[in-house]
């Protein structure tokens, strides 16, 4: 690996060790993306006491779910899987239709809340910190992303250790260490969410252009990283 990436890997591992030591219990909220697989590899290879969980929305691609099996086979680690409340899903489908999220931004956000945000709240219950694979390059809404933040909505610390990583560096790590990854990445998917809400990107598009592609770009967040009033959660890095 290049010297700059080696430095970033060392910084990543140092940060994760600090999180495990000073913010336990902590957890990685993995979307099973290439970014999250970088962090997963660092956590499990170094045997850090950080839990890793994922949210199975019920609408994920089969290739995404296959990553759960790949992690178990490669690292002998079983991810915790959180799923949406069946009653809430049923009520949404009955009232609006299974794919009603195409009809309006509000219906899409409601679906995301049921399938992702509420399960995330359960997954983070009792945690002192959570870790994400977000990067500044991924979208215009993430350009001011900090490596360490305060999640004011939940009252816990939040870490984005790959904030300053490039997409190329993520893939150099993944391929250089033979880290398992979602096969959809080889089919043009650069950011992967639920199957009906994700498409491959084309040359020149932003990394996340394939997410909720039918909506205005400024609203293309699922709610996991939003404040209760709908703004993107941001806080100054602690001194």
Structural description of this entry:
The protein is built from six helices and six strands, in the order H-E-H-E-H-E-H-H-E-E-E-H. It has 239 residues and is α/β, with parallel strands linked by helices. The chain has one domain: Rossmann fold (3-Layer(aba) Sandwich), CATH 3.40.50.620. The chain has a six-stranded mixed β-sheet. Helix 3 (62-75) links the parallel strand 2 and strand 3. The model is unreliable at 225-230 and 232-239 (pLDDT under 50).
How does the SSE layout of this entry go?
Elements: H1 3-22, E1 26-30, H2 34-45, E2 51-55, H3 62-75, E3 80-82, H4 86-96, H5 105-124, E4 129-131, E5 148-151, E6 156-159, H6 167-176
Parallel strand pairs: 1-2, 1-4, 2-3, 4-6
Antiparallel strand pairs: 5-6
Helix pairs in contact: 2-6, 4-5
Helix/strand-derived class?
alpha/beta
Radius of gyration: 17 Å
Proportion of residues in helical segments: 25-40%
Please report the total strand number as a whole number.
Answer: 6
């Amino acid at each position: 690996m290049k010297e700059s990436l080696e430095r970033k890997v060392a910084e990543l591992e140092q940060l994760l060790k600090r999180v495990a030591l000073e913010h336990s219990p902590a957890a990685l909220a993995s979307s099973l993306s290439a970014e999250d697989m970088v962090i997963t590899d660092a956590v499990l290879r170094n045997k850090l006491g950080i839990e890793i969980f994922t949210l199975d929305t019920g609408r994920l691609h089969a290739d995404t779910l296959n990553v759960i099996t790949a992690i178990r086979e490669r690292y002998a680690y079983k991810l915790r899987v959180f799923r949406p409340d069946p009653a809430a899903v049923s009520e949404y489908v009955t009232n609006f239709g299974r794919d009603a999220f195409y009809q309006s931004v509000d219906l899409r956000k409601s679906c995301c809340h049921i399938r992702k945000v509420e399960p995330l709240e359960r997954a983070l219950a009792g945690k002192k910190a959570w870790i994400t694979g977000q990067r500044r390059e991924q979208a215009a809404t993430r350009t001011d992303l900090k490596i360490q933040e305060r999640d004011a909505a939940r009252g816990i610390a939040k870490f984005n250790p790959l904030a300053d990583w490039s997409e190329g560096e993520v893939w150099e790590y993944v391929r250089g260490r033979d880290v398992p990854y979602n096969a959809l990445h080889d089919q043009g998917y650069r950011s992967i969410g639920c199957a009906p809400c994700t498409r491959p990107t084309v040359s020149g598009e932003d990394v996340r252009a394939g997410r909720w592609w039918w909506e205005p770009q400024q609203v293309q967040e699922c709610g996991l990283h939003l404040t209760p009033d709908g703004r993107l959660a941001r806080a100054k890095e602690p001194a």
